Every structure is written in structure tokens, then in C-alpha cells.
Amino acid sequence: MDMIQRKTLRILTESFLLAIAPAAASLFLGSDPGFLALRGAPVLAAGPLFAAFYGFGWGLAETFMAAAAGFLAAPALAGVLDASWLVMAADRLLFGAAATVPALFLLAFARRRTDQFRDRMLGRFRLAVRRTAALDRKVKALERVNRVLENRVSGQKDSITLLHNQVRKLASLNLERALAAVLETVELFTETSSSSVWIPSSDSGKLVPAAVRGWSDGAERSAALDPELTIEGYVLRNKKPFSARMVLDGSEFDRYDTDRNIITMPIIINDKVWGVLNIEDLPFERYSLYTESVLAILLGLSEPYLRAIMEYESMHALQEVDEDTGYPEFSILYNTLTKELGRFAMESGSLTLIVVEMANFEEELGRHSRTKLKKQLFALKDILEKSKGVKFRSYHFKNDNQIALLLDGLDKDGASFFCLDILTLCSSFSPATDGEFTPLEIIVGFASSEGAAGGADAMIETAEHLLSIQRL
User: Fold this and answer.
1) Using CA atoms, how far apart are residues 19 and 67, in angstroms rounded to an integer?
2) Strand, coil or helix: what is 262?
3) DSSP label of 321
4) What is the CA angle 229-231-236, rounded to 5?
5) Which residues pair with 209 in a beta bridge?
6) Which architecture characterizes domain 173-312 according to CATH?
């Protein structure tokens, strides 16, 4: 039973009790059913009294119920209900009945006016409460802003020292370490609790996180953004910053998802946008033009260091790429393994190293060139990517007849089954070389980062051990 039904039942009960009360009293007190000596006033008063509490409709219904109980039921129970009694009742009740209707209107009107006045007072009270709460929030926000401004003035000297110390951390040729220092500096000067650096991926065409801060462990490994549908892509294309207040300026950003973008700044290296810095969470009192200016200054100070790292990595990569295939040499694989395992020591995740070796490489050298056979191994890698729907990080291994693949997110059992799939696929793959089909005799070794206490060397030794067993 809902609230309306309960209220209706309560009113009906009260109406019934009030209607029979005068009739019962007239029977109990004497031989004057319906209080005709009093011109029926106690009976007729029930209707106006009910109208004062529940309105004209309920009051009119109560009048009829009380009259029926007092002037029909009570005389009948007293045994005096006859024609002469009815004539006497009509004579004595004429004035009271005539006065009852105006009384119903007046009391019902008074009740309605009282209810309207009460509703207006309650409305004003609620409005005053809301305004007081809003004013209290504004006062607290302004107090926080005032504290920030006071701290900004008093802490300028300390900020300069802090900035100098943070910039020194950028003087490294390690990109991962430099970007982590950039995000740390951003957090120190803006108090952001979540920020990230995004760069375009040459493989997928999407934006991927190059560095994050304040994210849950491993979250960046599954993150990828469509540059056409995100603010990060807009900033990357247009080479200009974005701020949350710009959403209110027009409909330009309606098609973008702006829920995770408070301030987004382009990272410019050599006058080109290399990536974007995104501030995802920021205290209200810190969101200001001053914060945007601080971010622009920090990125400007970081640009020479990041440019030096890019130039170093470009030269380093050119020196360690196989001239026949264009894929990185074993030294790059070793450095990558070392870096990835170091990162996994700080966060959850797994890395699998898969080494694919062409066992009949030496036999085929009599019919095909070494360069073409090396390229065929990487053609096999492309077939594997299309078949499995995944992207490998591909490298040369120690010998020309070996390639190495790195894959994230597989445990030992998953890596084992994955290698079996590779062998099954390779059994039916014969790439064409010089117009002829080259049969591939493939063996596979693998190692997982799970339990690889010895680091990169241990993983490489494990994979080579499995290869040596298959050569027997």
C-alpha cells in the first residue's frame, strides 16, 4: 500500500468516526436523538470541522455522513423515527442546514489560504538553505584560492630552487626517466593527482601513453586513444593547448570526449608536436590561467633536454639496425629487455621473449642469398601478426637465422601454447624466394618474465636452452 492509499484510508476512518460520534452521544446522553433541542448543531458542525482540515469536498461528504447518522440512524435506533419527528426535525434544522454550506466554503477557503502561505514559507526557507549552502561553498573555495595565492607569493624563492633541481633530472639520455621527471615536476607545481604524456604510435596510428603518473598499476598497457575522437588528438593536430573552459565557448569540442581533459598541452620538439601532456585531475583552486602558464613554462624548459634525447636515440638506433632488414639488432633487444624487466619490478605485468630459428638456414644458403633468407624470417613474423591479431616487437637475435619477438601479457602456460600455434602455422608456410618456394624448418624457444630472477640474461639463456634441446 503506497502513501496516497494510506492517507485516503486514514481520512475515511476519521470521517466515519467523526460522523457517528454526535449521533452516539445524542443516544447516550438522553432522549434527544440528533440533538434537535440544539437545532442539530453538534451533528451539523462535523462537516465544517472536517473541511477545515481536509478541504471542501471531504467536508461536504462528512456533512452528509454525519446527517445520515444523526438524523436518520440515531432516531431509528431510539424508536422515534416517524413522520411527526421528521416534520419537527425539518423545522428545527432549517437554519442550521442553511448555515452549514457557507461555513463549509469559508473554512475550506481558510484552509487553502493557510496551505498556500505555508508552502510559500517552506519554499522561501528551502531557497534560503540552498543559497546559504552555495554561499558556504563559494566562501570555502575562495579561501582555498586565497591560500594558494598567499603560498605562491611567499614560496617563489623555494619554487625557483625546486624547479632548478627538477630540471637537472632531465639532463639524462633516458627518455622514460626524463618523462617521469616532467610529470613529477608538473605534480609538484600544480598538485595534479593524475597526468600523462601521449605520443602517436607508428604501428596502430593511435595515441599511446609514453609516461603516466597517478594511474593504477598496469593501466597504461591497455590504453590507446583514437586521435580523431579525443582532445589529445585535437591538440596534436592543431599544435595548440586545450583547457576545460574552452568547452563553454562554442560547439567546436562537442564531438570529443572531454571527461578526462582539464588541461592538455602540446609537447613541441624542433618546432613539431612530438606528443601531448594531459592533466586529468586538478584541485579546483589550482585551475587557472596561472597554472596553464606554469605548464607552458615547464614544457618550454624541458624541450632542449627532450630534443637531445630524441637525437641521441635516433643516432643510436641507426647504428644498431640491420642494414638488410631494417630491424633492430640484438643489442637493442637486450637493452629493451633490461628496461622492461626493470619496469615490471615496480608494477604488475609480464613479458614473453620468443626466439624463432630457421634450422635449415645453412642448407638454403646454397640456393638463396643470406639477405633474402633473413627477410623471409621477418615475413614469417608479419604472417604471425595477421594470423594471431597481435603486434610483436621484433628484433634480430644473436645469429642471422634467428629472430626475437617480444609480447606483453602472457604467462608461462600462455607462452607455451602460443609457441605451439607458431609451429603449427609455420608447418604450412613456405615463402617464395627468387620465384621458388623455400621450405622452412622452424624451432622455437621462449622465456617468460615470471620468475626470471636473473633479468635479461636469464630470459635469453632460457630461450637458448629450449632451442638447443630441439637441435638434438
Assistant:
1) 8
2) coil
3) B
4) 100
5) 198
6) 2-Layer Sandwich (3.30)
